[in-house]
Amino acid sequence: MSESELGRKWDRCLADAVVKIGTGFGLGIVFSLTFFKRRMWPLAFGSGMGLGMAYSNCQHDFQAPYLLHGKYVKEQEQ
Amino acid sequence: MVARVWSLMRFLIKGSVAGGAVYLVYDQELLGPSDKSQAALQKAGEVVPPAVYQFSQYVCQQTGLQIPQLPAPPKIYFPVRDSWNAGIMTVMSALSVAPSKAREYSKEGWEYVKARTK
């Protein structure tokens, strides 16, 4: 992996983390205000979920050149 | 009867607000692949500052207040990547020569102590 590609992957990871944590936090605020009586745990849950999703995406992104993905190909009936 | 209708209305309003938020997240694919999130962040970065500026101009026009112009922030150029890479390379090269250097220094120290005790 070249350094510019590595830099692009890091940029994508950080942007993705910001968006996902922010989205999780925002959804946590909405659910906390609407259904959960202004408790703190939906915010923590949403932010944690966003962080986990961003980490998983980053991990797949960095391991992408080395992971082999299989594909099922349907037999075409003639 | 009225209380039940009111609590049902409240539940429907809250449900629609929460459902709308979830649909917005799904529609904008904010929790999807990383390139979509990056595109959404870039779009937000392009759209939000002009919108904030226009809103502030509208507020100034309506209220007659004048927002003072702040000076531009100083541009600081610090290549973090270069200094970080140089730091990593220095640390790794130091770690790689550490065993041989430790052997050399301990040998020198032993020779020195042997010479002093003779």
Description:
Chain A: Residues 37-78 are mitochondrial intermembrane. Chain A: It is found in: Mitochondrion inner membrane. Chain A has helices at residues 3-34, 41-63. Chain A has 78 residues and is mainly alpha-helical. The longest helix of chain A is centred in the first third of the chain and has 32 residues, at 3-34. The termini of chain A are far apart. With 118 residues, chain B is an all-alpha fold. Chain B has three domains: 1-30; 32-65; 78-117. The longest helix of chain B has 38 residues, at 80-117. Chain B starts with a helix and ends with a helix. In chain B, 3% of the residues are buried. The chains are: A mainly alpha (78), B mainly alpha (118). Chains A and B meet through helix 1 and helix 2 of A and helix 1 and helix 2 of B.
What's the layout of helices and strands?
The complex is a heterodimer of chains A (78) and B (118).
Chain A: H1 3-34, H2 41-63
Helix pairs in contact in A: 1-2
Chain B: H1 2-27, H2 34-63, H3 80-117
Pick out the low-confidence regions of chain A.
none
Element-level helix/strand string of chain B: HHH
How many strands, which pairing sense, and closed or not: the largest β-sheet of chain A?
none
What is the β-strand count of chain A? 0
What number is the mean pLDDT of chain A?
A: 85
Distance between the termini of chain A: 42 Å
Defining key terms:
heterodimer, A: 78 residues, 71% helix, flat, B: 118 residues, mainly alpha, 3 domains
Summary, kept brief:
Chain A is mostly helical and about 80 residues long.
